[in-house]
Design brief:
11 strands; 127 residues; mainly beta
Length: 127
Amino acid sequence: QVQLIESGGGLVQAGGSLRLSCVASGRSFSTYGLGWFRQAPGKERESVAAISRNGGSTYYADSVKGRFTISRDNARNTVDLQMNSLKPEDTAVYYCAARTSYGASSVRTLPAEYPNWGQGTQVTVSS
């Protein structure tokens, strides 16, 4: 079991940037595929970005491509989400999630595929 704690959310104006961080406790961080998800009020949780166990494969939702970057540091047990050119529609609670991955380059995007979740951090983008 891995515990995940997110930080870095806040209020930012449209066009601004935020960097979300997620630190994991427990062992074997390098065996986890990782993802960032978000959930806006009244909407389903959706995948924003995901990264493989070895960091070599990534996924981005079309809505964030070119603006967001996911990265991981297996030595520090962290996964970050750099968010640039933020838009009001990016407003949501952002969650990091982890799944045991048996493929070094595998990425997954469905929330149901991730058994481990952080508590979430609020991101609000004002227009």
